[in-house]
Amino acid sequence: MKIVFLDALTLGNDIDLSGFSELGEVVIYGGSTNAEVIERTRDCDVVVTNKLKLNESNLSLAHNLKLICVTATGFDNIDVNYAKSRGIGVCNVVGYSTSNVAQITVGMVLDLINRTDDYRASVKSGEYSARGVANVLSPTYHEIEGKTWGIVGFGNIGRRVARIADALGCRVLVNKREPISDFECVDIDTLCKECDIITLHTPLNDGTRGLISSERIAAMKEGVILVNVARGAVVDENAVANAFKIGKLGGFGCDVYSAEPFGKDHPYYEIKDMDNVILTPHMAWGSYEARLRLCNEVKENIIAFFKGDIKNRIDV
């Protein structure tokens, strides 16, 4: 068996992948262009990838390919229908990063509502020491208790964030396809209108692309805090940037983008240095512990597939 990692740098440089050699020949590439994918998959049995788009354009010559392993939960970068037409299995990994994505989400919300960066800056700059007053209380910050926190998408991560929000004393509103009994469920428009804090945890698909539109942003409360840890294209990124510029959003946190890394032409590039904006480099999923769990599960997916077992298959 030949296993090819196409973009191993997305897993960090502190994770040991040598254990995969127990399964067969392993070839590890830090990253791959589309043309390189064509060449590197020609004679492999298993492809392991995180972010690369895999479809007919770069897999048509991969005649030995039997399995695509996605080192993530989301698989919108894989043409699953094409894989099925070729009899190629596709596996993802679910639940490996629930704790740390929830941790980063709540951390962002707390930083944004507490204006932590601004207060820290007043001490670092020497302003606090120089002004001779015991306190700095500007900019104004607010209590989180009693606020309404909206959760868009209610999988493992959304549910974990909802429980934390509830523990912090928030009213929690949930938008999901199927109603639940333990939290109040509302439609997306009601959630956007009523919430002080909105965090996004939904997968990207035809139904969620552009879900947070300019119209829905316009309907939000003034000063709402918005955090996106789902997928960049779940929101209208231009509309979000413009809303922050005019003060509609009181805080914005984001770890995911429609183009990664985003360039100088991306709408967020203009707001990246603004107060109460937290933009992180798609790291919320990637604690050391989560990446260990992820790689171990990918290995187990490969073993299960070649034993004929169905484990984490998204093509069946």
| Total tally of structural domains | 2
Number of strands: 12
Count of DSSP helices? 11
**Structural class estimated from helices and strands:** alpha/beta
Oligomer: single chain
Structure, described:
This protein has 316 residues and is α/β, with parallel strands linked by helices. The protein has two domains: 115 residues, Rossmann fold (3-Layer(aba) Sandwich), CATH 3.40.50.720; 182 residues, 3-Layer(aba) Sandwich (Rossmann fold). The chain has eleven helices and twelve strands. The chain has a seven-stranded parallel β-sheet with strand order 8-7-6-9-10-11-12, sandwiched between helices. Strands 2-1-3-4-5 form a five-stranded parallel β-sheet, with helices on both faces. Helix 3 links the parallel strand 4 and strand 5. Helix 4 crosses helix 7. The longest helix has 20 residues. It is elongated and about 70 Å long.
Jot down its keywords.
316 residues, alpha/beta, Rossmann fold, 7-stranded parallel sheet, 5-stranded parallel sheet, 11 helices
Summarize the structure.
This protein has 316 residues and is an alpha/beta fold. 33% of the residues lie in helices and 16% in strands.
Strand and helix map with partners:
Elements lengths: L1 E4 L19 E4 L5 H7 L5 E4 L6 H4 L7 E4 L9 H7 L2 E3 L6 H17 L1 H9 L2 H5 L16 E5 L3 H12 L3 E5 L8 E2 L2 H7 L2 E4 L13 H6 L4 E5 L8 H9 L3 E6 L22 E3 L8 H20 L9
Parallel strand pairs: 1-2, 1-3, 3-4, 4-5, 6-7, 6-9, 7-8, 9-10, 10-11, 11-12
